[in-house]
Amino acid sequence: MNRNVVAWGALAVSSLALVSSSGLVKVAPAARGIPADSIKVAKALSQAYESVAEFARPSVVQISVRRTAGATVRAPGRGTPSPNPFGPQNPGGNLTPKQFEDMLKRFFGPDFNAEPQQFSPGQTPRVEGTGSGFVFDDKGHIVTNNHVVEGADKIRVTFQDGVEAEAKVVGRDPQSDVAVIKVDVTTYPALPRGDSSKLKVGDLIMAVGSPFGLSQTVTTGIISATERNDVQINEFESFLQTDAAINPGNSGGPLVNMNGHVIGVNSAIVTGGRGNDGVGFAIPMNMAGMVADQLIAKGKVSRARIGVQMGVLTPSMARQFGLPPGTKGILINDVLPGSPADKAGLKSGDVILGFNDVSITSMPSFRMSVASAEAGKSYELSYLRDGKKRETQITPAPYEKIVFPQETAAKEGGEKPGAKAETPKELADFGLELQELTPALAGQFGLDKSLRGLLVTNVKDDGPAAAAGIKPGDVITQVVRDHKIGAITTLKDFESALQKTDEVAVFVKSLQSGGRFVTLSKKKD
Predict the structure, then answer these.
(1) Is 147 a catalytic residue?
(2) Is the distance from CB of 243 to CB of 263 less than 8 angstroms?
(3) Tens digits of residue pLDDT in 129-164
């Protein structure tokens, strides 16, 4: 048996030698070396990151806050519990102490802790959490997020070298989620302010902060997008999007460019859980810096308003108004009487093209431009009316002085109970029922009794009207015919406007949302 094994082994060795000598088996070549130029580039990039981190970190701080358990963190400018800057998992509404603690854990990471639950009668439990910030000037001012310090009873700042200092709130702006706090220590360098308007998609950036309580953490990435103004976290927003890892605890920390200049304030992420999924948002520094300057100077932020309700100029809406395909601008739905827009001669149906020599292509960007303008100062505004370009001078007013009726109604409790019309007219092609509005019906629905039009009494769930956002209680007051806006007061007028057309633009009044133009298209079979 042993001799057989040896024989078979000898045969295997001789066969392998034969195959090798015939060239069927080749010796693997040695691994190819990395080109010297590639190594040089990689080292240069690595050294650049090292330099930026070394430059920025001494100006970045960890912020520890203590709050009363059960306190409610309010949303930016909305008077409702704060939407979650770290994804959809956080609880909302008025929170119990336990829910509040859980929310802070998601906001600030495992560094969060609740003080031992041993209290004397009448004592209030307190909770702690961690965020980030950066030195803004040489006077001890530090910029962070509003949601980091809102409701804080005590704020403690820790610098890179371990030095700690108590901080006080200088000012908060919930509408942009920017806050400024102040310490007595002034020996740490301020981060230079970069120009966020010059950022391009693909630019290299670095985020510095305290994710999950891990202070002085650096992550890198690129600018993924700019002017993200539909995230719906803040009332005023135009976020920078980045794939640099941003996690709970990074809030308020700086996003810096490769010069070490701060170009954004890290604020939120989109995630299916608690951690980073590669979609982070930062408040652009041009906005954050402007807010911080006003908070330091006045303790509050002043904004302006012109008194228009705006709508999206869709291709179908542009067709109804007879505008050329591809027209870019903002459709004016309604103008508040006596407002700056009214005084400037603007009307419902006008299309705003530019403000202060800047072209306007989106509602959020226009709203931001107006809000940032100086109240009482005159600006040039360009617009389209009847297909012709016009220009006017407009003087924005202080934000708080321009109030629309539906905003007042919302504060007073919203829509009043209404009654369904007794003899509605069904327009099956458009999926709605209408009734001529009378003063009595207007009063029942909480509307102005002088309002005239067609009351929407019913909307089919799968119809064109529902798709356009029309709801029972809305009132159709105008229709666009032959590219002109005309009032509608009777069902006969409206049915006449619908003859021989599959698409019509109408103006809809709503107690909740004011007025807006919408396009109705006949339901297809």
Answers:
(1) yes
(2) no
(3) 789 999 999 999 999 999 999 989 999 999 999 999
d(CA 111, CA 101) in angstroms, rounded, equals: 12
Cβ burial 12-46 (10 Å sphere, 16+ → b, else e): eeeeeeeeeeeeeeeeeeeeeeeeeeeeeeeeeee
The CATH classification number of 45-116+124-301 equals 2.40.10.120
* Catalytic-role residue among 82, 132, 251, 339: 251
Threshold 0.85, pTM exceeds: no
What are the backbone angles phi and psi of residue 389, rounded to the nearest 5°?
-80, 135
Choosing from 177, 334, 350, 474, the catalytic residue is: 177
Phi-psi region of 322 (alpha: psi -120 to 50; beta: other; left: phi over 0): left
Catalytic option among 132, 147, 210, 243: 147
Q: Catalytic: 293? A: no
Q: Is residue 203 flagged as an active site residue?
A: no
User: Fold match between 45-116+124-301 and 304-401?
Assistant: no
Rounded-to-integer distance, Cα 286 and Cα 291, Å: 9
pLDDT higher than 50, residue 115? no
pLDDT at residue 267 greater than cutoff 80? yes
In this structure, what are the phi and psi dihedrals at residue 470, rounded to the nearest 5 degrees? Answer: -80, 140
Locate the domains of the chain by residue range.
45-116+124-301, 304-401, 418-521
For residues 479 and 101, which has the higher predicted lDDT (pLDDT)?
479
Residue 402 reports pLDDT greater than 60: yes
Top-tier CATH class for 418-521: mainly beta
Output the CATH code of domain 304-401.
Answer: 2.30.42.10
DSSP one-letter code for 304: E
Task: Identify which has the larger pLDDT, 128 or 344.
Answer: 344
| Matching residue, tokens 């509005």 | 437
